[in-house]
Design goal:
About 40% of the residues lie in helices and about 15% in strands. It is α/β, with parallel strands linked by helices.
Length: about 425
């Protein structure tokens, strides 16, 4: 049974859990001093309230918003029509939406280059602000990032006599061997962003290389795309990789049945998937760097997740205060060290990692692999306005081919056409 709608169901659940509040009024096109209106999710709310308390002279109203995709652009579109109600600061649980909000149609996101010093921006993980940068200008600051690593079950590896792969060729060999010797065992998931962001993203396949706000590079004839298809083809035919999304309840059964040998996935999988969702007992899961691709000797990470803060072009005289809040929320080491996911700011990530290194759930310290991944994000992975189509079209092409036993290389052409159409329909020229 295909489960392509799992992500939508998860978003709906997140909306219920978030207990969102109304967005209220806020700034006007005049941009006077007035009240600083801030939209954040439930997770960021305590920090925003802390900032407000520390700045008693600052008029500030904080509103909780849900994390589901499309919510912020929809509300900003409404504010644009009424010419009022824009938040001065907004948190995006879906950082790709920065491309929408910075685009000419919305005109919402303000460039931060003159509001946040370069010395501060340089403190973020290399490549972390790529999804915030269009045409050389920075439109957001990342709160957290989701670099991918190779998660693996040390107990199963030892039991089966396998070695942790360091190259994708070794990964493929191990996956095929596991599928034959231990039927039902998987070494990866290829569904939506988990296939596109993890495998194609780490390979550098140009599916969303943003040259600026109106031009994007999409070229699935590139060898960096073909090598991913070559890697996954035999694994898909032997069912060593699954098209079930990791957030789908059916995936949890794989964990309970000791069928997850390896799983390339984002940093947050360690805390939020293996233990609470997959029910893998403590002392078994470890992290290794992503395997290296043919012809390369460096491990590159893909990306699946993370969040970002934006400042409004309508903030006017409140812009400086808005930028200061965003800077503090994303770079304060003490604050970021306590957040649930991997901080984008390097100094904060080091502090955050101290507790992670001692976490008894892991079989070994995951921080060396996580830190290496944060410093090795594959360049070219940009924020795009066709994010949803990027995921859905992957499933409609590569996912269907994997399910049917078809050619993944042939499916690349289908994905190319779907991506090109999606990009052009959202205002891009495809280079």
């Amino acid at each position: 049974m295909k489960r392509w709608h799992a992500a939508s169901l998860a978003a709906a659940l997140a909306l219920v859990v978030s207990g969102c509040g109304g967005t209220g009024g806020g700034g006007t096109s005049g941009g006077g001093k007035g009240e600083l209106l801030v939209w954040v999710d439930n997770t960021r709310m305590p920090a925003a309230q802390r900032y407000k308390k520390a700045h008693p002279d600052l008029k500030m109203r904080i509103v909780t918003i849900p994390p589901d995709a499309g919510y912020v652009p929809t509300k900003i579109s409404l504010a644009n029509r009424t010419r009022s109600g824009w938040p001065d600061v907004v948190f995006l649980a879906n950082p790709a939406e920065a491309a929408t909000l910075a685009g000419a149609r919305f005109g919402y996101a303000a460039p931060l280059d003159d509001l946040v010093p370069k010395s501060v921006r340089d403190g973020f993980a290399p490549g972390a602000l790529d999804t915030c940068t269009f045409g050389g200008r920075t439109y957001c600051l990342r709160n957290d990032i989701a670099p991918t690593v190779l998660w693996y079950d040390t107990t199963l590896m030892k039991k089966y006599g396998y070695q942790v792969p360091t190259t994708w060729a070794q990964y493929q060999q191990t996956g095929l061997k596991a599928a034959e010797e231990h039927p039902g065992t998987i070494v990866g998931a290829i569904n939506g962003k988990y296939g596109a962001g993890i495998y194609f993203g780490s390979s550098g396949c140009p599916t969303r290389d943003t040259l600026n706000l109106t031009k994007v590079d999409i070229d699935l004839t590139d060898q960096r795309c073909a090598r991913v298809a070559d890697l996954l083809q035999p694994l898909a035919r032997k069912k060593a990789v699954t098209t079930v999304a990791p957030i789908d309840p059916a995936f949890a059964k794989l964990g309970k049945d000791d069928k997850i040998l390896m799983l390339p996935g984002p940093a947050w999988f360690g805390d939020f998937m293996f233990q609470p969702a997959f029910h893998v007992p403590k002392g078994r899961i470890a992290a290794a760097p992503m395997p290296t691709w043919p012809g390369e000797n460096k491990s590159y990470a893909g990306q699946v997740g993370g969040g970002a803060f934006l400042v409004s072009t309508h903030a006017g005289q409140r812009a400086k205060a808005a930028a200061d809040l965003v800077r503090w929320m994303t770079t304060d080491v003490a604050l970021q060290a306590k957040q649930p996911t991997y901080p984008a700011f390097t100094a904060a990530a080091r502090k955050w990692g101290e507790a992670k290194s001692k976490d008894p759930y892991y079989a070994s310290d995951p921080m060396p692999a996580l830190s290496a991944a944060a410093g090795a994000l594959r360049p070219g992975f940009g924020a795009v306005r066709y994010e949803a189509d990027w995921q859905n079209s992957f499933n409609d092409s590569l996912g269907k081919a994997a399910d049917s036993g078809g050619s993944l290389k042939d499916a690349l052409g289908q994905w190319q056409d779907k991506l090109k159409n999606a990009a052009e329909s959202t205002g891009y020229t495809v280079g």
